[in-house]
Specification:
This protein has about 240 residues and is of the alpha+beta class. The protein has helices at about 10-25, 30-40, 55-75, 85-95, 95-105, 120-140, 145-160, 160-165, 170-180, 220-235, and strands at about 45-50, 50-55, 185-195, 200-210, 210-220. It starts with 7 loop residues before the first helix and ends with a helix.
């Protein structure tokens, strides 16, 4: 059996990616394959035996990890604030528009492998890649290391908590107003519940004229609705 060696261009590309991550976040990657996968948008699918290889599964995992880390951070930072305030702040930090801004600010957007030529894909893939990167970091380094990177290298440096506290981002109202203007019916449905007690999560799906548009998962129905509403706004409402 013969084995093919990696081409010099592939080796160079891998080194460039590893160097970029080191420059942005200050750590040396272990399993570089995870990070390469995190930055592969679905428009640049690699099909292996009928299985599409892209960052969608990592995005799913990264969303949960990022939400958990931010929830703990806010819980400790605001010891006297209620659940509603904490949920609102977490939504502002992890919302797609904010992750998109972070992706561009950090330079993650320049690492994305994509052949996307549609405006809707371009609007969401930067935030998707950010979440996928968080999952890759978690799988490579573990939860505690990931938590430290998120807090020390992202939140403390790149997120203005005070400004976000006073920022109004009501995607649900924006979606409903758009639907009324376009004469469309919007329905928010809880389609799944998982976990127990403090770890109970809700999955909400938004339907527009009975067509499923987006989903959101959170520890409250209100939070899940906000996440789903933001995704729906990105998909449906022109900038």
């Amino acid at each position: 059996m013969s084995f093919l060696k990696k081409s010099s261009s592939q080796t160079s590309s891998a080194k460039d990616l590893s160097r970029s991550i080191k420059n942005i976040f200050g750590f040396q990657t272990g399993n570089l394959h995870l990070y390469k996968l995190a930055f592969r948008h679905k428009s640049a699918n690699i099909d292996v035996n009928g299985i599409k290889i892209n960052n969608e599964r990592l995005e799913y995992l990264g969303d949960a990890i990022l939400g958990s880390v931010i929830a703990e951070y806010l819980f400790k930072k605001f010891p006297y604030k209620g659940e509603g305030f904490l949920t609102e702040m977490r939504s502002k930090i992890v919302c797609r528009s904010n992750l998109d801004k972070l992706s561009r600010k950090l330079g993650i957007d320049r690492l994305i492998e994509s052949s996307a030529d549609t405006k809707s894909a371009a609007k969401s893939m930067r935030g998707d890649a950010f979440e996928a990167f968080i999952a890759a970091l978690y799988l490579d380094k573990g939860y505690e290391y990931t938590r430290k990177i998120i807090i020390k290298r992202i939140v403390n440096i790149h997120i203005d908590i005070d400004a976000l506290e006073h920022l109004d981002t009501n995607f649900k109202s924006k979606l409903i107003e758009w639907a009324q203007k376009e004469k469309k019916d919007v329905d928010f449905r809880v389609i799944h519940e998982r976990g127990e007690k403090n770890h109970h999560q809700y999955e909400v799906e938004i339907y527009v004229d009975e067509k499923p548009i987006s989903r959101g998962i959170d520890f409250s129905i209100k939070g899940a609705e906000k996440i789903a509403a933001e995704k729906a706004c990105i998909a449906l409402i022109p900038e």
